[in-house]
Design goal:
Elements (H helix, E strand, L loop, with lengths): L1 H6 L7 E3 L12 E3 L6 E9 L3 H12 L3 E10 L4 H6 L5 E6 H9 L2
Parallel strand pairs: 3-4, 4-5
Antiparallel strand pairs: 1-2
Amino acid sequence: LAVISYQKGKPIKSFIVRKDVKAHGTRSALEGNVHPGERVVIIDDVITTGGSTITAIERAREAGLTIDRVIALIDREEGGRENILAHADRVDAVLTRTEIMSRYRRP
């Protein structure tokens, strides 16, 4: 999303949450153009258990960011959305597994 927004000439502020903090560079779990106190959206490709999204939420909060919501491309409907809702007030998915399977089964 960040790269495409830049290519379109309308760059958005963005950041990434590292899975593992590296021993070199900034040695930070969070890299990007955001500052404490800012409201952010956590974007993930797929929600299954919610584990990686919850980690991103926790690390963003540790950096002083306020989580506005979580957006995922696909919710696999395996309990992850509910797990994330224990950490964020709003979780939206572009598509759910049910919606995808419904479209796949259509003639």
